[in-house]
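Handout, section 4.2: multi-component inputs.
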Amino acid sequence: MAGTPLRVIPLGGLGEIGRNMMLLEYADDIIVIDVGLMFPEEEMLGVDLVIPDFTYLRENVHKLRAVFLTHGHEDHVGALPYFFREFACSVYGTRLTDGLIRLKLGEHRQLQKADLHVVKPGEVIDAGVFKVEFFSVAHSIPDACGLIIRTPLGPVVHTGDFKLDHTPVMDQHTDLIRLAQIGAEGCLLLMADSTYAEQEGYTPSEQLVGDALRNILVNAEHRVIIATFASLISRVQQVVDAAVFTGRKVFVTGRSMIDNVAMARQLGYLNAPEGVIVGVEEMRNTPHSKLVIVTTGSQGEPTSALTRMANADHRHVSIVEGDTVVLSATAIPGNEQAVYRNVDNLFRMGADVLYNRVSNIHVRGHASREELKIIQAVLQPEYFVPIHGEYRHLVVHSKLAESVGVPKGNAFVLTDGDVLEIDENEARQAGRVPASYVYVDGMGIGDVDQQILRDRAHLSTDGVVVVMVSVDKRTGHLERPPEILTRGFVDVEMNEDLLERSRRKVADQFKGADHYAEFGDINTKIRDALSKFLYDETRRRPMVLTVTVEV
Amino acid sequence: MAGTPLRVIPLGGLGEIGRNMMLLEYADDIIVIDVGLMFPEEEMLGVDLVIPDFTYLRENVHKLRAVFLTHGHEDHVGALPYFFREFACSVYGTRLTDGLIRLKLGEHRQLQKADLHVVKPGEVIDAGVFKVEFFSVAHSIPDACGLIIRTPLGPVVHTGDFKLDHTPVMDQHTDLIRLAQIGAEGCLLLMADSTYAEQEGYTPSEQLVGDALRNILVNAEHRVIIATFASLISRVQQVVDAAVFTGRKVFVTGRSMIDNVAMARQLGYLNAPEGVIVGVEEMRNTPHSKLVIVTTGSQGEPTSALTRMANADHRHVSIVEGDTVVLSATAIPGNEQAVYRNVDNLFRMGADVLYNRVSNIHVRGHASREELKIIQAVLQPEYFVPIHGEYRHLVVHSKLAESVGVPKGNAFVLTDGDVLEIDENEARQAGRVPASYVYVDGMGIGDVDQQILRDRAHLSTDGVVVVMVSVDKRTGHLERPPEILTRGFVDVEMNEDLLERSRRKVADQFKGADHYAEFGDINTKIRDALSKFLYDETRRRPMVLTVTVEV
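Output:
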């Protein structure tokens, strides 16, 4: 196979945040790393989720050997149910990742096509020509891993999402020793997490948060309510530890938090002494000073438990003066308005609210610049591809890599669909494969296109005006006055005059013709005339739709 | 007038960012401080601007004595053109503020009703029972002021927007000596800027930015393009100074930047030696290494000069490899996506892009917590009202005030419309006045209501489906097959089957009736049946509109 290149094909997560998915291809073998989803951006109106474009894999399905999952976050595993609608293959992940995707695939009735395998760090899996070894990384979910992938051309390292943390909560370190061994051996290609490539210095340790939460529980005279990500099991462990230390009981609320806590306890990722985590009844009988509540809703999700509390709409928890509410999370861009609406409402109800801007109660799960330099230092890769980030993250990460030793020109800023080919002599960009946004909207997968999104954007701005005309098909004359219906445009009752003049403007379009055929496209004529009239009158541009009935 | 209370009535800017407007009322006199606008939040679909609710002023127009403007930013003066559509009175502001609002009122043909007066810091204006003195503050626009308002009950201090800056660019300090004099005399009420009440420590000095910009111009080998706010004249001055130091010419682009630079030079707020600021021709003849371009577009505004450059669509400036682009601004919440899209595109074109996350090239214009404590310390007010901020900013600012000496219970967290009454003995909240969001959309002012916004939100999510049926009014039978028109819902060509079944579903609603009167509201019946059918088929909920023609 001399001369056969290794092909690196990102299908998602490069040039955007989320829907991470990477292919490695060599001759007749393809392996997949992560199959994640992305939450829609602002202009993707009405879209529920965005998943990677599987076209290339569809066309090369005979090469598909296995899927490897770095960890259980949605942006790395969330598109698996859509993947298994059309593909069937082995899936490898660590124990918690496996537990999470079993739940998810079960809900979508897609378990039968995924051949799931639990692996441990250090284990090596054969997949065609590739040999894949998992190694432990510190990240904001237990059991996170990166991958060392042996290829015919040399070892490739994929960091997954990671940071360095020398005092992590559950002893989950990034395995620098193993990485240094690969570095000593000679690393062909490094692909490393760029999410925080803009951030100077080091990401603080989880220990900092543990200390802060403990102080809050020690000092609060009344109840403490802590909202965080349901997958951030280590944070829940920190709360439980602080609760034990201060003699408080823990009540868990919010569906995904309840599910995750139950699964984490069952699998041994969350250790709580008997009697510390309590149900509704015991929570009700516990004085507020001896209580801490762990809840979902740190992102202001509309139906989450914390949002219900903030709206005085939670079944079991009513916020009272003296409560301390802790948002142990950062608002993800796009969620700020919802998060701060909750903060405002909780303040209005008399709670004291601690959030990231005023308190050190959250640290991020991604490596900052000094950590990224350390990874470069221990691996000293020949080639480098920054992964997981918007375009600017990838650019600054690639500059960072070149500044600490990656040979000039050997760092490649790829975006989704760009193919990188590496052979014995060199690496080069080699064309593209399809990598569109695939929108999931209701039951539709991939059927929402740019035209539909443009129409939704138009409708959202100035609403819709529907014009109905009945035309005598022999004479071409209006058979009755036009009807006009509007939504989202103007207040109809206050604008009867405008609507009356609009009807006349429509009727005017029929003047001077003797029979219908003379009009050409009467709908276009009506639409153009009415759009212009309405813009002149209101400086708004509603979408104008016309229906013509020939009688 | 013993017993007459001083009434503090915020009409905007308390509980939100923007549209700042405050009334002070005593017996038969009302003065207005600032008349600002707000840019619409995400859910205010299609809205152009939001202005304060003038209802209370309308009902008490005989009391209106004057408007005082703290500075020329849009969130403090932007609603004046709408104000002067219905009111007429004297307006007081410093010279640059006056220059900016003359431009604005002129554009709206509203100059004649505003009796404009230029004042200087230290000057005192009589307005009914009130005597109003302007004092200088450091902020991100020249000539910014706060107000000392003498009332029958004692002096009130309104800070406007401010920070402390001991090394400002144009010697524009916050006048701590004057404030300390009022503190010594006894300050009745302090109203202070809360925008940065969450931020620990001190806001850095403008000098920091000046040094950073100079270093960039010294080190860049090619052209440097600097985007900032058009009103941030001091930043432009820093660029001009650095250009002079490095022997570069300055080219200015972007309409509002050109206008502001022209006015600032004319009024003496921007000092540039002869020949430093150049036109298009000279710019074209200057080598890139001797050029710096100052431009609008730091917020990613779609038609701004920087966005045009990033889209290779600017008339005079084409980005080339080697260019350094500096975003000397912070992305205002809501603008991040547009700002970073520009950053990504500029990187793609080969420019080096420096932005706030990777470089110290912007400082904010608002005081951080330690500065807010100093203002409390020099004024030691009896009562305190935090202004300019979302609810949480007001809450944390009021806690800060109480922590440094405002008597417990004397700090009032008011939101728009809340009335605070202060008399010789106490202060208390005393009811509310109308303070709705007033939306400007096209030519409409205040006519867009919640129903219209809800309709736009519905339309934006899943589009619109229009059903047209012709009914024989004698028999109640369908006179022909129903017609269906959709936009923003599904791809019509790919879903002909769905549409055909939808038409049948509509036709089914006419079965079993012998004449028209039996249907009750046929439109409702069609809408409900079709909505349910489409949801079951697609899990989408388009807005369904029906038009019935009786023939």
